[in-house]
Amino acid sequence: AASALRNHPFLIRTASEARKLHGIGGSISSKIVEIVKTGTHRRVPMNSKQEKVISDFCGIYGVGRTIAAQLWDAGARSLGDLDADPIRFNLDKNQQLGLRYYQDLQERIPRDEVTVIHQLVLESARKIDPKLQVLAMGSHRRGQHSSSDIDFIVTRDTSDGIDHTGMIKKLWHALEARGIAHHNLTEMNDCMLHALCSLPVEGAKMRRVDFLGVPFDELPPALIYFTGNRYFNRSMRLKARHLGYRLNQRGLYKDICLDRNGAAITEGTRVECRTEKDIFDKLSVPWR
């Protein structure tokens, strides 16, 4: 319902207009009309304190709305309550780290800081292996002035028969030695590592960093996928589907067999694409 409202080109003013949208029935449409007419809803004031506290809890790494509601039910009424007795509220290691660095992780990361961290990671990567590549993705690659977190693709040119296996672990230990890498939030493997890192200077803020291991032959589609944003990715996948292809972060596939709901029954054959532009060209999307 929220997505349908967000993407609707015109302001909804009546219940009948609301009910025409996918996923909206009588109950939701009446709430929409009340909000349109009054600017609020009768249930909002009643729950505002609880909702604000739950929203604050959702800002902790590893805490979603369900866990946040459970923390409220357990008697927590502030971040201070959780900080005072994390064991009582059954916070795991990652959630305790998220609480400790709550303010840092709530802040947007300036573009200049992402650039410096990227350069430091690149320096360490090149010392490990000159063919190791680390690419900054997400909002940074889209040219945004700030980022909510930092995504790095880690890959290696396989022309000499060696791939990126084991490289994320080596890179992590090198960054630890330089005072950049501090806490790994997931198990270390060749696919992905969620972590907390910072600039190696006194008083530097802790930042969320994801290291994404990508096979070299899957780099072009991965660049598209991890650059985003999600609306662009959704549009690209839809365009591919209309042309009889399937696109994901691993490749562009042809000869796909779909069921009546549009889900792929067979994997299909991966189309050779050496660059992002190759994929854009196959889908007749202008490259810029």
UniProtKB/TrEMBL annotation:
Where's it found, cell-wise? Nucleus
What are the protein's UniProt keywords? Answer: DNA damage, DNA repair, DNA replication, DNA synthesis, DNA-directed DNA polymerase, Nucleotidyltransferase, Nucleus, Transferase
Coiled-coil residues: none
Q: Which domain of life is it from?
A: Eukaryota
Q: What's the Enzyme Commission number for this chain? A: 2.7.7.7
An example of a Gene Ontology cellular component annotation for this protein is: nucleus
Tell me one GO biological process term.
Answer: double-strand break repair via nonhomologous end joining
Active site location: K31 (nucleophile)
Write out the GO MF terms. Answer: DNA binding; DNA-directed DNA polymerase activity; metal ion binding
Q: What class of enzyme is it?
A: transferase
InterPro entries, sorted: DNA-dir_DNA_pol_X, DNA_pol_B_palm_palm, DNA_pol_lambd_fingers_domain, DNA_pol_lamdba_lyase_dom_sf, DNA_Pol_thumb_sf, DNA_pol_X, DNA_pol_X_beta-like, HHH_MUS81
Q: Which family does it belong to?
A: Belongs to the DNA polymerase type-X family.
What this protein is reported to do is described as: DNA polymerase that functions in several pathways of DNA repair. Involved in base excision repair (BER) responsible for repair of lesions that give rise to abasic (AP) sites in DNA. Also contributes to DNA double-strand break repair by non-homologous end joining and homologous recombination. Has both template-dependent and template-independent (terminal transferase) DNA polymerase activities. Has also a 5'-deoxyribose-5-phosphate lyase (dRP lyase) activity.
Check the record and name the PANTHER family matching this protein: DNA POLYMERASE LAMBDA (PTHR11276:SF28), DNA POLYMERASE TYPE-X FAMILY MEMBER (PTHR11276)
Name of this chain's protein: DNA polymerase
Protein's organism: Leucosporidium creatinivorum
